[in-house]
Amino acid sequence: MISNKIQDAINAQINAEFWSAYLYLSMSMHFEAEGRQGVANWFKIQFQEEQAHAQIFINYLNQRGGRVVLKAIDAVPTSWESPLDAFKATLEHEQKVTAMINNIYAIAEAENDYATRDRLNWFVTEQVEEEDNARQLIDKYAMIGDNGMGQYMLDQELAARVYNAPAALGE
Ligand code: MG
Q1: pLDDT tens-place string over residues 32-57
Q2: Ligand 1 is a single-atom ion; what residues have CB below 5 A from it?
Q3: CB-based contacts of 49-54 (< 8 A; 24+ apart in sequence)
């Protein structure tokens, strides 16, 4: 059985993962409307990844005999100045998510809940990747600035991103 404190923290994290999914879908829709199909594709895949993160926590809580409680998802922003602006917002958001994961980890450590710690290890690694991806794209957009050819080529690069369901989803 899982403690109430960890159950509450994981339920809050499920809500945060769905909020992240909603944020990235909003970004995708914004850039779709702006004719930036590659950026829109990148964020649509990010939307799918965040839903998978929520599902991994849902599966875990159910496996531990906990109770998943779904709460309202807060509104998300709906427009961004540029792809650079959106990727900066992405990095800032992912840093907050990392802090949330670390906080649950600290609770699990205090409670000697080794199973939760083990499940969270996947998310710790995932967050390193999420922050690195956003940082690399910020660097690329900063590098090309207003150069039209650069913007076009980077959009093509982002259009090639495909969704792969994380292995942790099937565990
Ligand atoms: Mg996530």
Answers
A1: 999 999 999 999 999 999 999 999 99
A2: 17, 50, 53
A3: 49/163, 49/166, 50/17, 50/18, 50/20, 50/21, 50/24, 51/17, 51/18, 51/21, 52/165, 52/166, 52/169, 53/17, 53/20, 53/123, 53/126, 53/166, 54/14, 54/17, 54/18, 54/21
